[in-house]
Amino acid sequence: xxxxxxxxxxxxxxxxxxxxxxxxxxxxxxxxxxxxxxxxxxxxxxxxxxxxxxxxxxxxxxxxxxxxxxxxxxxxxxxxxxxxxxxxxxxxxxxxxxxxxxxxxxxxxxxxxxxxxxxxxxxxxxxxxxxxxxxxxxxxxxxxxxxxxxxxxxxxxxxxxxxxxxxxxxxxxxxxxxxxxxxxxxxxxxxxxxxxxxxxxxxxxxxxxxxxxxxxxxxxxxxxxxxxxxxxxxxxxxxxxxx
Amino acid sequence: xxxxxxxxxxxxxxxxxxxxxxxxxxxxxxxxxxxxxxxxxxxxxxxxxxxxxxxxxxxxxxxxxxxxxxxxxxxxxxxxxxxxxxxxxx
Lengths: 243, 90
Description:
The structure holds two protein chains of two kinds. By secondary structure, chain A is an alpha/beta fold. Helices cover 32% and strands 23% of the residues of chain A. Chain A has a six-stranded mixed β-sheet with strand order 5-6-9-10-12-11, with helices on one face. Chain A has a five-stranded mixed β-sheet with strand order 4-3-2-1-13. A two-stranded antiparallel sheet of chain A has the order 7-8. In chain A, helix 1 runs parallel beside helix 3, helix 3 packs parallel to helix 5 and helix 6 runs parallel beside helix 7. Chain A is globular, with a radius of gyration of 17 Å. The two termini of chain A are 17 Å apart. By secondary structure, chain B is α/β, with parallel strands linked by helices. In chain B, 31% of the residues lie in helices and 24% in strands. At the A-B interface, helix 1 and strand 13 of A face strand 6 of B. Strand 13 of chain A pairs parallel with strand 6 of chain B, so a sheet runs across the interface.
């Protein structure tokens, strides 16, 4: 059994770092790994990233993260990543992490993801350069996610995102902003490569549970959705051994 | 002078979106999910944030953008609970 704790959208500032740090102290008892689904900061500054390091300082299990849109806001994503990495947090962007855990091996393919919308009502790579660049960014990220997931040869494979791969977990958000909350291209990548679970954040007004068209479970772990400092998912490697 | 001079103040129907944009982008707030509803000379703010400081900052930013409106700050303060539930995926 692999136990995965996950949370996104913690949006740390000086006013909420201590309560979160205190609440995260139980994660070592509850899980084998902690996954952070982006928007760890409010403005994406190095100083706020240092607060994230403080919040997980007492966590002993491996911590793996992706960045979110807030973490890019100050154009200091590299500094944010360096800060998190210096505290032992593995930050993924189009990369993978393989962890040998007590219950089996866990592979995590992580990326921020991006928007564009969902099948039947999504943006196309057509028209002005700005529009094409917007869509191309998602296409490139999805292609990379597919490759990274496919490379993983682990007992359990997880896609760790900030943006949503499905509409299911956006229920409660305004329909008009769905294209800014995720893209079906991410789900297509997950379904092509295969995964046991996809985690994301970003949609504060959404819901926790969803599934890709190919049947991969999706969980929106944005803290305002799960109303907790983390949720734990238990996955049995034997269940997926036949894939 | 020919043509038309733009009005100095935006039409009232745009005030709500100006407030919402300010709340989303002002460094004091950067809150993306705050609801803004204009009713007459009142502006109702809704949503959830993680601290009273963040709620108060939202009200402050809204008041600066719409000084002629009464701000009804109904944003709720919620905190992450310590109850960590587990879901077994099988």
